[in-house]
């Protein structure tokens, strides 16, 4: 999280969003839900969570923002950063 905060402090919101996405995937993996596998796509991680999982909505929201700014080359903003940070912090 320190890396994400540092990136955001430098107004590098795109990198901050990417870092938060990675933190979310690792957090769920550390809980034993899955082994982090770089061969998996972002949506595969979402699909691995049951529909009724409390982690699914925040991970999906983070994933959508990450894909939009990283692959869609949308301009990331402080609002995007704050939104994905709040989603990460809401994850059980």
* Helix-strand topology string: HHHHH
The biggest beta sheet reads: none
Structural class: mainly alpha
Approximately how much beta-strand content do the residues carry? under 5%
Give the termini distance in whole angstroms: 16 Å
* Number of E-state strands: 0
Number of helices: 5
Please tell me what the overall shape is.
globular
> Stretches where pLDDT falls below 50 for ≥5 residues?
none
Rounded mean pLDDT is 96
The Rg value, from CA coordinates, equals: 12 Å
Helical residue percent band: 55-70%
Structure, described:
- With 92 residues, this protein is mostly helical.
- Helix content is 66%, strand content 0%.
- It has helices at residues 2-9, 13-30, 42-48, 56-70, 78-90.
- The mean pLDDT is 96.
